[in-house]
């Protein structure tokens, strides 16, 4: 029998599989996608937010625990489990050597528009390189990896994991029979439900305009996160946490693909101009805080606008100050011409921008600091980086909500155990997006998802191996090779 069954194929699942195997357990990993799409949302990531008290290899200056915690507290509005959050924060300071031991490489410190060389370590080659390195290491250590293996059911006995079930399915034109896979312990790391259009509709419902907002959402991440396993665990009585409408939701280019657009579809110039809805009106402070801390609120803001549509407007002064988008912006020599090209009400749009221009109190513009360029007498205000849009050409980028992952998940504790009626399962554990809602009640800050997934993936793998009778001090990874 398999010692540890890991369900999922992203960062958290791979961390769990590697830790369990390093402890000496036999491990099987079930990835629901084909091999070419393996890695879940982790294939689209770029960085890990890291605590450090002094400069460390690829990180500059210091980013101490308390500052990290305050940043998280601010974006979540206090909707976070402090104990679990601080576990992830502390673990982020010491995991990079372990990651390197499994083939992950980091870039030298970055500078420029992202302002995160102090807080975030970037993966050489991005998330795809990270998951490929982990898969290579897992297979080298004897983890058995199976693709096209989406779990349809979990078999429990009084909160104890017994087996996972794969439904009958077609793979590469071949019909595969249903399967039942037993294991001594199991780690659930199969992601959220962001690619389940029906569940998104159920969660978001209709708005006061009679629209179904989620019908206009794009999915930045994998199309394979449909929440089948999460829904089944809820039906089986697992304790849950989080609001089903809360998610890592970013304002992305409205021309992005429905799935798997990834990081390159993000529009990073919001703080350098104004954002208007399709009625030509502003609706939020574009200069509230640094972009890595506040970019993830804009998807939800756009979701609240008519048609779930908005436009990021800049002028020539902003060019070169942000990460260039994949798709070119709509360009015009006047505001009226730009409105006409976008199909916006010309008078309303021009009036919005002109009122903004008049309200700008230009001080010393500095996009690397919370500067003194702000508006006065304008609602909503722009509190930083407010400069009149007065230098043509003008540019517009269409925005729609882009969902990365959902926050509804399974409640857990310091051991990463799944709970039933407040009681921890002795052999069923959870990691990654399926439990991120314990730390992220709402909001997001760049790199925190990878910190949570890495910390609790490693905890879940260690705990699962221990539940199967293997101590983390066990170093013989060959002892159960034949079992897998």
UniProtKB/TrEMBL annotation:
The keyword Nucleus does not apply. It comes from the Bacteria. Its cofactor is FAD. One of its GO terms (molecular function) is oxidoreductase activity. Residues 4-46 form the Rhodanese domain. Keywords: FAD, Flavoprotein, Oxidoreductase. This is Tricarballylate dehydrogenase. It comes from Pseudomonas abietaniphila.
């Amino acid at each position: 029998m398999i010692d540890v069954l890991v369900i999922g194929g992203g960062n958290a699942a791979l961390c769990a599989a590697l830790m369990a195997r390093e402890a000496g357990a036999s491990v099987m990993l079930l990835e629901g996608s084909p091999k070419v799409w393996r890695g879940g949302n982790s294939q689209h990531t770029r960085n890990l937010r890291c605590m450090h008290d002094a400069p460390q290899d690829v990180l500059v200056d210091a980013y101490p625990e308390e500052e990290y915690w305050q940043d998280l507290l601010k974006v979540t509005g206090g909707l976070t489990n402090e104990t679990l959050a601080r576990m992830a924060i502390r673990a982020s300071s010491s995991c990079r050597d372990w990651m390197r031991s499994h083939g992950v490489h980091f870039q030298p410190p970055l500078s420029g528009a992202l302002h995160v060389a102090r807080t975030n370590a970037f993966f050489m080659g991005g998330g795809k390189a990270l998951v490929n390195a982990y898969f290579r290491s897992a297979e080298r250590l004897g983890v058995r990896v199976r693709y096209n293996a989406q779990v349809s059911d979990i078999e429990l006995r009084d909160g104890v994991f017994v087996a996972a079930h794969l439904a009958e399915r077609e793979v590469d034109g071949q019909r595969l029979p249903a399967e039942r896979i037993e294991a001594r312990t199991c780690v659930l790391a199969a992601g959220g439900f962001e690619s389940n259009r029906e569940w998104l509709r159920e969660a978001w419902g209709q708005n006061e305009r009679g629209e179904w907002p989620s019908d206009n959402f794009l999915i930045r991440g994998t199309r394979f996160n449909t929440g089948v396993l999460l829904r089944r665990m809820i039906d089986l009585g697992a304790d849950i946490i989080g609001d089903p409408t809360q998610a890592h939701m970013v304002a992305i280019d409205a021309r992005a693909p429905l799935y798997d657009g990834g990081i390159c579809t993000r529009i990073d110039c919001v703080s350098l101009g104004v954002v208007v809805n399709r009625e030509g009106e502003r609706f939020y402070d574009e200069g509230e805080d640094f972009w890595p801390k506040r970019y993830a609120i804009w998807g939800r803001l756009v979701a609240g606008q008519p048609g779930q549509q908005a436009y990021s407007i800049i002028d020539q002064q902003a060019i070169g100050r942000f990460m260039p988008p994949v798709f070119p912006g709509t360009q015009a020599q006047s505001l009226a011409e730009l409105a006409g090209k976008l199909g916006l009400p010309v008078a309303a749009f021009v009036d919005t921008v002109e009122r903004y221009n008049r309200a700008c109190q230009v001080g010393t513009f500095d996009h690397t600091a919370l500067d003194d360029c702000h508006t006065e007498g304008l609602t909503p205000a722009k509190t930083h980086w407010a400069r009149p849009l007065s230098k043509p050409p003008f540019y517009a980028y269409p925005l729609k909500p882009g969902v990365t992952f959902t926050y509804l998940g399974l409640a857990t504790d310091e051991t990463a155990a799944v709970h039933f009626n407040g009681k921890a399962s002795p052999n069923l554990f959870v990691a990654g997006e399926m439990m991120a809602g314990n730390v992220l009640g709402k909001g997001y800050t760049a790199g925190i998802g990878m910190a949570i997934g890495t910390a609790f993936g490693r905890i879940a793998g260690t705990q699962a191996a221990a539940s199967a009778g293997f101590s983390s001090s066990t170093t013989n990874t060959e002892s159960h090779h034949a079992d897998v």
